[in-house]
Amino acid sequence: MTADKYQARMRAHTNIALVKYWGKRNKNLFLPVTSSLSLTLDAFYTETEVLFDPSLKEDSFTLDGQVQTGQSLAKVSNFVDLFRRDFNMSLPVQITSRNHVPTAAGLASSASAFAALAAASNQALGLGLSPEEVSVYARQGSGSASRSLFGGFALWHKGQGDDSASSYAQQIDPADWDIAMLVVLVNPGPKKISSRQGMEHTMQSSPFYALWPEEVAKDLSAMEDAIKDRNIDQIGIIAEHNAMKMHATMIASNPSFTYWQAQSLLAMERVRQLRQAGYSAYFTMDAGPNVKVICPYSQVEAIRQALLDDFAEDHLVISRPGPAPYAV
Ligand code: PMV
């Protein structure tokens, strides 16, 4: 590689799992206990520019206009090391990133962040890796990031043993039909347990965790059928039950913990009531207090209107399925 500059700017969208990833079998390589399946969203994304330049003194990382140091810089710098190691080069990198999530958020952005950084590195360095291959890199920044290399519904294969290359994601359906997600932003509490800490603690101390891999295997196969059939009620029923089972493993950990807040429970209850009123509305939740409502796009505005009784307008964000990463 010559002493040239290599630059690219990519946008990657976040994704929400319908069948969750919860637990690693290999912490260093981010190899998961189970496969998982998600929907990429168009409303939330990260834009990242990378510049590999021999005239730079060292790596730098600016996030939302703030220069990052310490752990935050180390995390992305170590991530870019994966490319430097595999492609035998040592150029310093300047990374400039912007998260496009509503200000009231508290919505995790690590999936879109590492997908954007991996895609931009591939593009800038002209590596010509396939999206599946890029997803293997993204996975090692944040597991869920592997799925953000694809638009629509994505399946992240758990892979075999300690073989990193076998644990990649791929698109299973473009989701170009009547489906949407309404994100209910619940204000995050002061104490945040990261997904990494949460899953580790659950695996170590929850007697219910032993049941989780089997349940996921069943849910994945049923979910793939439901997606093929475009059966929104089946998709919703499986997703909601899967999320509840994941949160049950946490509630049963010792000491117990939960990401739920009072407002999360209120949102869940409202979704159940909307169902009774005839809507195809189902919820899912991740490692935070926000509630995401799965529903047909044709019903999402009516569902949003109903939730306005309890939630502020800027805390209700409608999203359609989102695309794979692209250059901006
Ligand atoms: O990849 P992480 O560390 O952001 O973990 C994601 C964990 C969940 O959001 C709870 C589930 C998932 O599959 O995205």
Summarize the structure in words:
With 328 residues, the protein is α+β, with helices and mostly antiparallel strands. The chain has two domains: 171 residues, Ribosomal Protein S5, domain 2 (2-Layer Sandwich); 140 residues, GHMP kinase, C-terminal domain (Alpha-Beta Plaits, 2-Layer Sandwich). 35% of the residues lie in helices and 24% in strands. The structure holds (3R)-3-hydroxy-3-methyl-5-(phosphonooxy)pentanoic acid (PMV). The site of (3R)-3-hydroxy-3-methyl-5-(phosphonooxy)pentanoic acid has 15 residues, from helix 2 and helix 4.
List the helices and strands and how they pair.
Blueprint: E1 6-19, E2 24-26, E3 31-32, E4 36-52, E5 60-63, E6 66-67, H1 70-86, E7 93-100, H2 110-124, H3 131-139, E8 153-156, E9 169-173, E10 180-184, H4 195-205, H5 212-228, H6 232-251, H7 262-276, E11 282-285, E12 291-295, H8 297-307, E13 316-319, E14 326-327
Helix pairs in contact: 2-3, 5-6
This protein binds (3R)-3-hydroxy-3-methyl-5-(phosphonooxy)pentanoic acid (PMV).
(3R)-3-hydroxy-3-methyl-5-(phosphonooxy)pentanoic acid binds at residues 17, 20-22, 36, 108, 110-111, 142-144, 195-196, 286-287.
Pfam families: MDD_C, MVD-like_N
Keywords: ATP-binding, Lipid biosynthesis, Lipid metabolism, Lyase, Nucleotide-binding
GO molecular function, one term: ATP binding
